[in-house]
Write a structure and sequence with these properties.
34 helices; mainly alpha; 746 residues; 3-stranded antiparallel sheet; two-stranded parallel ribbon
Length: 746
């Protein structure tokens, strides 16, 4: 993914974008995009950030910056469309077990195929032993494996009859040496390629009478496996060098696969590496020097590049390098661990990152502290990094960071009364709820509530009451949700947690709207907005406009609803907040459908679905339900029904009754229209059962029930028509109307 070539002669233009700064990568990309007739100013910056992320770029509450995956993925999709116009594209994701973002892109690519299929074959290769401790990547791969059009192939060793042919075709070795290579590598082609490549690059082969043999008749001291092979390569590269060189490389490996030489120099200085280490054999500059990266570090990198163990940027001024393979870096980390140095190395990396500005610094610092064995120190950065990922819509990465935070708590052996235990459970519950995993969210929330009440953690209690209120709302338990949110407001106001106080008030307003208590709902939403504005929470303040739009729609005032949602969209667009734009587009789709502007509603809805799919967000199935209703009202019942049935199944499995009832009402109407009375009665019975428990007021449920009533009446089934009429009357009887306060343009 990081070695795209964009000219028509792509194979000769793989140029190491991952080692370029964002600015240099953007320039190179713009040249390639122009060759394809694209507008480089539109997508150049986002693609540059994708292939060469600039770690100094900061993200803020708007969700902009390197965390803006949605923008990068959309830009890459547009690029693929350009490339596919010439010929089909094969995209190879090597070592995908280290590529959460690449796997997330594949999921996004699959989700866009229905709207505009692309002739793209994606091949992702993973190694089981590397995947075993990669929780996020494992989950992404499991999700991909279940999707249509995805096939999984398990590759074992090459068959015995083909192994000798592989070795023979690569190099004409002497028979005995070829047999030894075949026996040791056991059909692992990567092992064969690396071993023979090492012999060739090291000049260890010579021509013998029956083929290539080891020079000077030396013994074939073959490594046992790939790890030993890489380890042997490292040790040979370090042969004759002072110990400081090996320690310096360990520090580079602790920093990561792609290393900033300035950061590396800083870590080396903090570790005392290079001080007083007289000139080593190959590195005459191995002494402290002024400047960001001492000359001896440059010499070490050159030494690795010559031995094909590292690669530099095309332009050396970029001051970065990358290890050629993750297993090489892993060998260096193991080397440090065996010597008892790895925890100290990780601590120095964390110290170096302290206070550095830019996106992702706390995430990196937390990971280094955790690897150093300091769970207490790691917990704060991991919490902050998870919040940053959540804010930018990277829910999968946020979940992975919260899992690391759980490891940090276990490692730190926090006392039972440390409220960070409860805070972790609240954050996990919120993230699971955002992803539509309601049962999981409920478990985390109940655990957090028990901890908070048992140990008197008012701040944690305020957060979990808010989260439980949100969960109960989507479950259709509106009265319980209202009580929980009212308690959350009182608790968060007392603790000064104004962010959660405002959100609790806002969600209280939405529940009151669902209950038809329009005047109270409007007051709650106004209060929430005042809290957000008073304390400088821009994004939630905009979200309150969407809540006001929902309220206006409930009263039937579609004009006010449209103005409010459009205003929210303008404000989100000004912030370049893609997550918020998806929400506002979804709200506009719903309102436009009620106004009868179906083509525009469908366009808005499909955009929202695309964005929410990318985020793995719980709103994606909600918007598919809205799309089904749009298609139904356009007269396309055929495409609408499968979507309806699928989403109703999703909502039922997730326990999201507030959306399930809307889908079942539509299915009841569809069954009545086709005179499938038995199915109509089943769906109708479920609708009435949910409404009795929830007391929900939903204009879409009313519309669907009215369709069912008219269909039954037209078919002469007056009993069913009267039952539908009774349900409608039950649903709207207590519905107050207070539209006047909402008519004023925002």
């Amino acid at each position: 993914m990081t070695t795209f070539g964009f000219s028509k002669d792509a194979p000769r233009n793989h140029c190491g974008f991952s080692l370029l700064s964002t600015e240099k990568a953007q320039h190179r990309l713009e040249v390639g995009l122009e060759e394809h007739g694209a507008k480089p100013r539109d997508d150049g910056p986002r693609l540059a950030d994708f292939v060469a992320p600039d770690r100094t770029a900061a993200a803020d509450e708007s969700g902009r910056g390197p965390g803006d995956r949605a923008g990068r993925f959309d830009a890459l999709i547009r690029l693929l469309r350009l490339l596919c116009a010439e010929r089909p594209v094969v995209m190879w994701l090597d070592d995908a077990h280290w590529g959460a973002e690449s796997l997330a892109f594949v999921r996004h690519l699959l989700s866009t195929q229905e709207d505009g299929p692309l002739p793209v074959l994606v091949v992702a290769t993973v190694t089981d032993e590397q995947l075993s401790d990669r929780e996020l990547e494992s989950a992404l791969l499991e999700d991909l494996a279940l999707r249509p059009g995805v096939h999984t192939l398990t590759l074992g060793p090459i068959p015995l009859r083909s192994r000798a042919a592989l070795v023979r075709d690569l190099l004409p070795l002497e028979r005995d040496l070829a047999a030894l290579v075949d026996e040791r590598t056991r059909g692992n082609p990567l092992f064969v390629l690396r071993l023979l490549g090492d012999w060739v690059s090291g000049g260890r082969l010579e021509q013998g009478p029956d083929g290539l043999r080891l020079r000077d008749g030396g013994p074939a001291d073959l490594p046992d496996d790939l790890h030993q092979l890489w380890n042997d390569l490292v040790e040979r590269a370090l042969a004759g060098q002072p110990p400081e060189v090996g320690v310096a490389l360990e520090l580079a490996a602790a920093l990561g696969q792609d290393v900033s030489m300035d950061e590396w120099a800083d870590v080396c200085a903090r570790s005392g590496v290079g001080k007083g280490a007289g000139p080593p054999h190959d590195f005459p500059g191995c002494v402290d020097t002024d400047g960001p990266a001492p000359a001896w570090i440059e010499e070490i990198v050159d030494h690795l590049v010559v031995r094909h163990l590292a690669r530099r940027p095309v332009e050396r001024a970029e001051r970065r390098f990358a290890f050629v393979h993750g297993m090489l870096r892993e060998c260096l980390v193991r080397r440090a661990a065996a010597a008892g140095r790895i925890e100290r190395h990780q601590r120095r990396c964390a110290d170096m990152l302290w206070g550095r500005p830019g996106h992702g610094m706390e995430e990196r610092r937390g990971q280094h502290l955790l690897a150093a064995g300091d769970g207490r120190a790691a917990l704060g950065p991991l919490f902050d990094a998870a919040a940053e990922r959540h804010l930018s819509g990277d829910f999968g990465l946020a979940a992975g960071l919260l899992a690391r935070a759980s490891e940090a708590i276990s490692l730190a052996d926090l006392p039972p009364d440390d409220e960070r235990r409860g805070e972790l459970a609240v954050r996990r519950a919120r993230l699971a709820e955002y992803r539509g995993r309601i049962a999981q969210a409920e478990r985390w929330a109940i655990e957090a509530r028990q901890l908070a009440e048992a140990r008197t953690w008012p701040r944690v209690l305020g957060g979990v009451l808010h989260e439980l209120g949100r969960i109960r709302r989507v479950q259709g338990r509106l009265a319980e949700a209202l009580g929980l949110l009212e308690r959350a407001i009182a608790t968060t106001a007392l603790t000064g947690d104004h962010y959660r106080e405002g959100h609790s008030e806002l969600d209280r307003g939405r529940v009151l709207c669902n209950l038809g208590r329009i005047g109270e709902a409007g007051g709650a939403i106004d209060t929430a907005r005042r809290i957000f504005d008073r304390h400088g929470f821009k994004v939630p303040s905009i979200w309150s406009r969407i809540a006001q739009a929902e309220l206006a729609l409930t009263t039937g005032d579609t004009g006010a609803a449209l103005a409010l949602a459009a205003k929210a969209e303008d404000e989100y667009t000004a912030l370049d907040h893609l997550h918020g734009r998806a929400y506002s587009s979804a709200a506009l789709a719903l309102i436009l459908r009620h106004r009868g502007a179906l083509p525009e509603a469908e366009e808005r809805c499909r955009y929202a679905i695309e964005q929410f799919d990318l985020l793995d967000h719980a709103e994606a199935p909600v918007q598919r339900l809205n799309l089904a209703q749009i298609l139904w009202e356009k007269g396309a019942a055929g495409p609408a029904l499968p979507i309806l049935e699928e989403q109703v199944s999703v909502f039922s499995a997730d326990g999201r009754a507030i959306y399930e009832v809307r889908g079942r009402a539509m299915l009841a109407a569809a069954a009545a229209a086709s005179r499938e009375w038995r199915r109509r009665d089943v769906e109708f019975g479920r609708v009435r059962a949910i409404l009795r428990v929830s007391a929900l007021i939903d204009p879409d449920v009313t519309r669907a029930l009215d369709l069912a009533r008219r269909a039954a009446g037209s078919a002469g089934s007056h009993r069913r028509a009267l039952a539908a009429l009774d349900a409608i009357q039950d649903e709207v009887a207590a519905r107050p109307s207070d539209p006047d306060r909402l008519r004023e343009a925002p």
